[in-house]
Amino acid sequence: KPVFILNGPNLNLLGRREPHIYGTQTLKQVESLCEAKAITLGVTIDFRQTNHEGVLIDWVQEAMDSASALILNAAGYTHTSIALHDALKALSIPVIEVHLSDPAQRESFRHVSYVGMAATQTIAGLGARGYELALESAASLV
Ligand code: DQA
């Protein structure tokens, strides 16, 4: 089964969106990094992005039976979505929370993570490199 790598709202704008915070790499480039890392690890990935909370929840539910692990950057929904938290709680596969920036060092409204409370581990503040590390971690956990 592939490792699902799911990305939430506004991450489609990566590279053009507050580059001083999120870097200049596009999401497509992050996906390419993940593809290359997956090959070296001998795993397959399913990399997706949506701006819609319900779609993200549908994909988390899909991961239940169809993924070996879940890497999730829920972006803004990290700090707001109890529904996403509940969906993650239903999973028995490893869940790795990823953020490009470190929300703990930013505005106080980013200090709570409903994703983190349901995740196996969290990687934050390492930019796109965090996705590669998350993949390494996922590969070692499954
Ligand atoms: C983010 C951090 C979130 O607080 C923010 O809402 C995002 C991106 C990150 O990757 O650093 O959209 O998840």
CATH class: Alpha Beta
Bound small-molecule species? 1,3,4-trihydroxy-5-OXO-cyclohexanecarboxylic acid
Shape: globular
Strand content: 15-25%
Indicate the low-confidence ranges by residue numbers.
Answer: none
* Major sheet details: 5 strands, parallel
Calculate the terminal CA-CA distance, rounded to whole Å.
Answer: 10 Å
State mean pLDDT (0 to 100 scale). 98
CATH superfamily: Dehydroquinase, class II
Question: How does CATH name the architecture?
Answer: 3-Layer(aba) Sandwich
Q: How large, in whole angstroms, is the Cα Rg?
A: 14 Å
Instruction: List the domain count as a whole number.
Output: 1
Helical amount? 25-40%
SS element count, helices: 5
Strand order of the biggest β-sheet: 2-1-3-4-5
Protein name: 3-dehydroquinate dehydratase
EC number: 4.2.1.10
Keywords: Amino-acid biosynthesis, Aromatic amino acid biosynthesis, Lyase
GO molecular function: 3-dehydroquinate dehydratase activity
